[in-house]
Every structure is written in C-alpha cells, then in structure tokens.
Amino acid sequence: MITFDAVTKRYPDGTVAVDRLDLEAPTGEITVLVGPSGCGKTTSLRMINRMIDASEGQILLDGTPVQGIDPPTLRRGIGYVIQQAGLFPHRKIVDNIATVPYLLGWDKKKARDRAMELLERVGLDPGLAGRYPFQLSGGQQQRVGVARALAADPPVLLMDEPFSAVDPVVRTSLQDELLRLQSELNKTIVFVTHDIDEAIKLGDRVAVLRVGGRLAQIADPKTLLSEPADDFVQEFLGHDRGIRRLQFVSTEGLRLRTDLTGAEDAPWRLVVDADGRPTGWISPSRPDELEPYGTFVHGRDSLRTALDAALLSPSGCAVAVDEQGKVVGVATREALDQALAEAADG
Ligand SMILES: Nc1ncnc2c1ncn2[C@@H]1O[C@H](COP(=O)(O)OP(=O)(O)OP(=O)(O)O)[C@@H](O)[C@H]1O
C-alpha cells in the first residue's frame, strides 16, 4: 500500500504543484491519477520513488516513510515506465530489459534469461532481443519499457503516461496487455494519464486531480461515472457518461430469446452454422441475403457491448454467444430496454 498523507510539493519558484494530497494506492491494485495538464500528476508520481522530494507531509510505502529510505534502495523495489519508453539507444533490447538485474549484480546469463522470459511475457517476439531500440516500432518499444520495469520483479510499478505516444490501435492493445499482465502479477501500480477513458479502463481506483494539485475525487470507475463529486469532475468525465457507465453493468441477467434462430414467422431469423456459430440475419423481404450481426459474450461482456451489438444488427437484436462463440440466444430490443431501465434505476 502506498499512502500520501497531506503531501505538498512547493517548487523553489513558489509553484505549488501538489497541495495537501491524501491518497491511498492499495496493494495489488491499479490506482490511476488523472487530470488536466499541470495538475501535479507527474510530481505526485515522482515523489513516490523520490525523484522529487515532498516539501511537507509523508508518503508511506507499506507504512514506512519513503523519505527515510535511500533512493537507490527504494527504487530497487519500484519499476518505472515513462512515455516513449526511455530505452538506452546503444544497448540491445535484451540488455535494456536486463538493466536492473545487471545493476543488482545478477550473473549475465541469469539476467539475460530473465530478459528473454519477460520479452515473451509482454507479447514480443524473442527474435527482437538482438535489435536496438530504433529498430522497433513505438508500441514495441513501449512493451520493452514495461518489460524493463518488471525485470527485477518489483512489487510496485509507477507508470507515467506510458501509452500516450502511440496510435489509438496500438494503445488499446498495450492497455489490454497491461490488464492481462496485472491479472497474473498483481503489482501495486500507480498510473498517470490525462485521458479519462484510459483511466476508467485501467483503474481499480481513479483519482481525479484539479490544477493546483488538489484531489477532486477518488473512487472506483463505476462510482466516478455515476456519482461525480462536483461540476469539475463531471465536466472532466465528458458528455457520454451515461453510456460509458453501461460498461460496468453485467449482461448476466439479460433476458434472452432462443426462438429467433428457427421461427419461420419471426421478422428476422438468425442463421447459425453447423457448429452453432452465427453467420447472419435473414429478413423475409430478402431471404437470400445474410445481413450483419453483432455479438456479445453473455455474462462476460457488459451491457454497453450488448447495446453496441444490437446497433450493429439491422434486426436491432444483439446475438448472445458463449465463450466459444456459439449462439446461446438473442437479446431483443425489449430485453435491452428493460435492462437499460434497470441500469438507470440502479
Ligand atoms: N521543476 C519545476 N519547477 C517549477 N515548477 C514546476 C516544476 N516541475 C513542474 N512544475 C509545475 O508544477 C505543476 C505540476 O506539474 P506536473 O508536471 O506535476 O503536472 P502534470 O499533471 O503531470 O502535467 P502534464 O499532464 O502536463 O504532464 C505545473 O504547474 C508545472 O508547471
């Protein structure tokens, strides 16, 4: 657990970057710091590993004030990932990843074996190990940055806008990869971003800061979207807050119809292949044409995904599938409408 206890940072020129910040980042969870430019996110993050020292207040790491730990010892237990990866340009990828193990005096073979293991773990081809950073794409470099931060298996990971410099598609895959890694590794992660969608996707808890370094609200994403503390938080969350809240509503209780794959008299009929997977909708007016369909995994995907699936189908119905992609039923507009009404109530 990382605890900020009334932490203030005043720079020598008098700028108050962080103002009496109280915050807890629980062990094994992702805590995201989000807010507009200049609100003190990076300053807060860097005070954890003492790249910047707090002016007042305390930061505790599992109850011990970081101010009392000498920086090299402190940083051994804290991985750090920054925007554009910050790799050493003249070192091969394998040696970049093994940086901290080398510093810790591991023998070269053990450090390199660990680097190779991590390369695969972050979803990279081991064949990239012998390349130099400039021979990798931005997204690949970012993955190497994550692997390097994890090399000595630190319990804490600090990530400062690590995915901001890559295009949206790569960014999404890096975010998914981080969530997958975290489900295996359970690190205590503090993640800085200015992108509220990224914060909501990644955070177990999201701390919204306002300029002047004051905490506006800290909550889990669902609570943040449904109960913003004030106008500033509400504005920062953006306009489609209601729709985005649906991503936290389960489809488990969504009522499904199972007769739309066969009923001859139904306005739309869902066609499935021999394995039970959907192939398209057929309407009586165009019986020879398969129309597009959208699917969601029943019980796993959110109501937002189910709604999206319905909007992608001319039938207006969302096709519910199991984890193997086989049809388990169809959510009609009426069923979705009922679920939406329940979500609005709850
Ligand atoms: N070394 C410094 N000396 C004086 N002021 C500083 C210094 N570093 C940062 N600041 C100021 O402190 C405030 C917080 O900066 P910080 O970099 O922590 O914000 P941020 O939320 O991470 O911003 P961004 O999203 O733009 O990176 C800003 O007003 C910034 O100008």
UniProtKB/TrEMBL annotation:
<feature type="domain" description="ABC transporter">
    <location>
        <begin position="2"/>
        <end position="237"/>
    </location>
</feature>
<protein>
    <submittedName>
        <fullName>ABC transporter ATP-binding protein</fullName>
    </submittedName>
</protein>
<dbReference type="GO" id="GO:0005524">
    <property type="term" value="F:ATP binding"/>
</dbReference>
<dbReference type="Pfam" id="PF00005">
    <property type="entry name" value="ABC_tran"/>
</dbReference>
<dbReference type="InterPro" id="IPR003439">
    <property type="entry name" value="ABC_transporter-like_ATP-bd"/>
</dbReference>
<dbReference type="InterPro" id="IPR017871">
    <property type="entry name" value="ABC_transporter-like_CS"/>
</dbReference>
<keyword id="KW-0813">Transport</keyword>
<comment type="similarity">
    <text>Belongs to the ABC transporter superfamily.</text>
</comment>
<dbReference type="InterPro" id="IPR003593">
    <property type="entry name" value="AAA+_ATPase"/>
</dbReference>
<keyword id="KW-0067">ATP-binding</keyword>
<keyword id="KW-0547">Nucleotide-binding</keyword>
<dbReference type="InterPro" id="IPR027417">
    <property type="entry name" value="P-loop_NTPase"/>
</dbReference>
